[in-house]
Amino acid sequence: MLECRNLSFSYNGREEVLKNITLSFAPGRFYGIFGPNGSGKSTLLKLLTGELKSSSGNVSPQWDSPLIRARNIALVEQQIPSSLPLTVAETASLGRFPWEKKNAVCHEKVEQVLEELELSSLRERPFNALSGGEQQRVMLARALVQDTPVLCLDEPGSSLDIGFQHALCRILKKLAGQGKCVIMISHDLFSAPAYLDRMILLAQGTLAADDEPEKLRNSQLLREVFNLPSEKI
């Protein structure tokens, strides 16, 4: 179980980006975090993964070392590396580093993930020669190859076409069904909620809702947070 209790954070020591957030993330569940720009979604994810330290409150468990943390939680960041002088297979194999320091390009897990994400035909292609959507899929492959109990993703579908956005959500739903805890930041209020077990809504750094997607997807609260018209989403 990944938890945060009374979590607050400030970048400048004054204005709080997150305020008193309490959440629990269980194995075998697919969570979606939503909210307008500036609501604190990415900051929350960085606190959960240990990239940032909270101003107050706490996140548990606390990993004993960066290596132990890397064996328990993987992150797909929103920002794709601008230059990576590796092939697709070499980039994906970086996910094995917490487990084995040797070259893992031909590791069974690498081949399995490349196949699942439809990247096998690109395995020898330079990462820098790929399109933005392909690069995003390779970053997802690296995280899946890491094979951790917790998988965190910051807008993983932002560069993907609509077909692969749905394919991605199906893969993440399947991983949750296999016991992983999957936490995804998304702006996709149309299709993503259909795959989620839990929908978390942030507004101005506070927790506005933590509920079943069916209850929130067309709610008045969601429309108010996003300043949407009265029509259903």
Protein topology:
Elements: E1 2-10, E2 16-25, E3 30-34, H1 41-49, E4 56-60, H2 66-70, E5 73-76, H3 88-93, H4 108-116, H5 132-146, E6 150-154, H6 162-177, E7 181-185, E8 198-203, E9 206-211, H7 213-216, H8 220-225
Parallel strand pairs: 3-7, 3-8, 5-6, 6-7
Antiparallel strand pairs: 1-2, 1-4, 8-9
State the gist of this model.
The protein has 233 residues and is of the alpha/beta class.
Explain this structure to me?
The protein is an alpha/beta fold and 233 residues long. It is built from 8 helices and 9 strands.
What is the terminal separation in angstroms? 32 Å
CATH fold-level assignment of the domain at 1-60 and 152-157 and 182-233: Rossmann fold
Note the quaternary state here.
single chain
Q: Which range does the strand content fall in?
A: 15-25%
Taken from the alpha-carbon principal axes, the silhouette is: globular
Descriptive terms for the model:
6-stranded mixed β-sheet, alpha/beta, 24% strand, 233 residues, Rossmann fold, globular, single chain, 3-stranded antiparallel β-sheet
